[in-house]
Write a structure and sequence with these properties.
Oligomer: single chain
Mean pLDDT: 80
Shape: globular
Largest sheet: 3 strands, antiparallel
Strand content: 5-15%
Number of domains: 2
Helix content: 55-70%
Distance between the termini: 20 Å
Number of strands: 3
Low-confidence stretches: none
Length: about 160
């Protein structure tokens, strides 16, 4: 894939997230977003000129979009679940280690960030061999198994295939 096509994909992805996060479709917001995106591209080319950016090569944009839809749904689902945990004061923090089936650090980072965005979980680190360390507010031991199943069966399977 040519370098200019990669840049267009990155600009498109950054612009999509800018518009999604700001939810403001005015000319001023679009101009600010495009200006910041171009600034990011220029600074990236200056500071990372010897290191190729391979972020969008390991995952297609279609898979990435579907992944983010799953993450948003899980955020809403977990927020309602943890409202009851907080009200009833039934949850306790638990350190969980999840072994991922991938060696791709970008996929591991996406999964760690998705878990951190989900209420009740915080990703602590990505250890050697793509092992996630997560603190999660759980009520029962089954919650640990559910979190591992969510990560491995849903997120990782979606990003790897």
């Amino acid at each position: 894939m040519s370098k200019s096509l990669k840049n267009y994909k990155m600009i498109g992805a950054l612009f999509f997230f800018w518009m999604l996060l700001t939810n403001n479709y005015s000319i001023e917001n679009i101009s600010i977003g495009l200006g910041l995106i171009l600034l990011i591209q220029v600074l990236s080319s200056i500071f990372l000129k010897d290191q190729p950016i391979q972020i969008l090569e390991s995952i297609s944009l279609r898979k990435l979009f579907i992944f983010f839809i799953f993450v948003i749904v899980d955020i809403y689902r977990a927020s309602f679940k943890y409202i009851f945990h907080i009200i009833n004061n039934k949850s306790r923090p638990e350190l969980i280690e999840i072994d991922l089936n991938t060696d791709d650090i970008f996929i591991a980072t996406l999964i760690a960030n998705a878990l951190t965005l989900t209420p009740g979980t915080v990703s602590l680190s990505i250890e050697e061999g793509c092992k996630l360390r997560v603190i999660s507010m759980i009520e029962e031991v089954e919650d640990i198994k559910y979190l591992e199943k969510q990560v491995i069966r849903k997120y990782e399977r979606l990003l790897i295939k």
